[in-house]
């Protein structure tokens, strides 16, 4: 846990993942071991919400948030989503570059993000910063919804997952409390925590902005740091622990049929063994 004395400001680290675009029709690879990723890719939609919330927080608390850093783990092309985060309002980017065919499971991702956190905290030790992570609640490619929780465990920080509302009570520098409204099966639950903490964002938290052309141009000049797994000492930890045996498309839905009467409907349902 971070020390409790007063902090000079808050550094927000925001995780962004490059995924197959949500509008693309998914195709199974010929080897049946995964999906074809050589299609249009974009930032994971839940991560866009995480970036937007960080930027909105800074707009609301201008003097208290000293930095927003976007972090992504992926191949060289992952730089695209980092540039998008910079255009949305992040100050700098950290790219942990891995091979194009690397398979990173949530546990490996959480270890990498924890190592990035430790590296950034050590580098800024004299700044007396407070720290927090914003992550999307899940990625739309694997739908694991595990990275945020695992990262909180690795850092030994509190976690507030599936957030639909975020409210900082008082000033960050005083270490005052954060109130988070979470979406749960039975409705909404409100939890309270203090810095540092890990937040995962749900759909109703906000609506992400479109990056303007001037901000896209400015993003090209913002600091962009590149790291490797070797830099973080995690070459072995990032190896997958699971093997995908087979990926199948869901069965195609059968077409519907019209009936002329209630009696015919009942007869059809009986034939199908539904009643």
TrEMBL record:
Q: Where in the cell is it found?
A: Mitochondrion matrix
Q: What biological processes does GO assign it?
A: amino acid catabolic process; fatty acid beta-oxidation using acyl-CoA dehydrogenase
Point to the regions of Basic and acidic residues compositional bias: 242-252
Q: Name one Pfam family in it.
A: ETF
Cellular component, GO annotation: mitochondrial matrix
Q: Where is the signal peptide?
A: none
Q: Recite the UniProt cofactor note for this protein.
A: Binds 1 AMP per subunit.
Keyword Phosphoprotein (UniProt) = no
The record's region (Disordered) falls at: 242-261
Keywords, ordered alphabetically: Electron transport, Mitochondrion, Transport
Asked whether the UniProt record includes Electron transport among its keywords, one would answer yes
**Where is each Electron transfer flavoprotein alpha/beta-subunit N-terminal domain found?**
31-236
Give cofactor(s), names only. AMP; FAD
Domain of life per record: Eukaryota
Predominant location: mitochondrion
**GO MF entries:** electron transfer activity
UniProt record similarity statement? Belongs to the ETF beta-subunit/FixA family.
Q: What does this protein do?
A: The electron transfer flavoprotein serves as a specific electron acceptor for several dehydrogenases, including five acyl-CoA dehydrogenases, glutaryl-CoA and sarcosine dehydrogenase. It transfers the electrons to the main mitochondrial respiratory chain via ETF-ubiquinone oxidoreductase (ETF dehydrogenase).
Q: How does it assemble?
A: Heterodimer of an alpha and a beta subunit.
PANTHER family linked = ELECTRON TRANSFER FLAVOPROTEIN BETA-SUBUNIT, ELECTRON TRANSFER FLAVOPROTEIN SUBUNIT BETA
Report the protein name in the record.
Answer: Probable electron transfer flavoprotein subunit beta
Q: From what organism does this protein derive?
A: Ceraceosorus guamensis
């Amino acid at each position: 846990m971070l020390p409790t004395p007063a902090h000079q400001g808050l550094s927000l680290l925001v995780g962004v993942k490059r995924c197959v675009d949500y509008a693309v029709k998914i195709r199974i690879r010929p080897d049946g071991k995964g999906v074809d990723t050589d299609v249009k890719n974009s930032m994971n939609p839940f991560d866009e919400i995480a970036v937007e919330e960080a930027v909105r927080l800074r707009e609301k608390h201008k003097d208290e948030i000293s930095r927003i850093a976007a972090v992504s783990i992926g191949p060289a092309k992952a730089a695209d989503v980092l540039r998008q985060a910079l255009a949305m309002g992040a100050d700098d980017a950290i790219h942990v570059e891995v091979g194009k065919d690397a398979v990173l499971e949530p546990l490996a991702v959480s270890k990498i993000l924890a190592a990035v956190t430790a590296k950034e905290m050590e580098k800024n030790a004299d700044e007396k910063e407070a720290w927090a992570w914003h992550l999307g609640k899940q990625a739309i490619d694997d739908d694991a919804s595990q990275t945020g929780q695992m990262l909180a465990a690795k850092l030994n920080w509190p976690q507030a997952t599936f957030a639909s509302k975020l409210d900082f009570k008082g000033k960050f520098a005083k270490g005052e409390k954060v109130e988070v409204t979470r979406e749960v099966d039975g409705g909404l639950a409100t939890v309270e925590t203090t810095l540092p903490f890990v937040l995962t964002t749900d759909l109703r938290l906000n609506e992400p902005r479109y990056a303007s052309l001037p901000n896209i141009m400015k993003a090209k000049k913002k600091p962009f740091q590149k790291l490797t797994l070797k830099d973080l000492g995690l070459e072995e930890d990032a190896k997958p622990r699971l093997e995908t045996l087979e990926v199948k498309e869901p069965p195609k839905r059968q077409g519907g049929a019209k009936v002329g009467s209630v009696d015919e409907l009942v007869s059809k349902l009986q034939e199908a063994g539904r009643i």
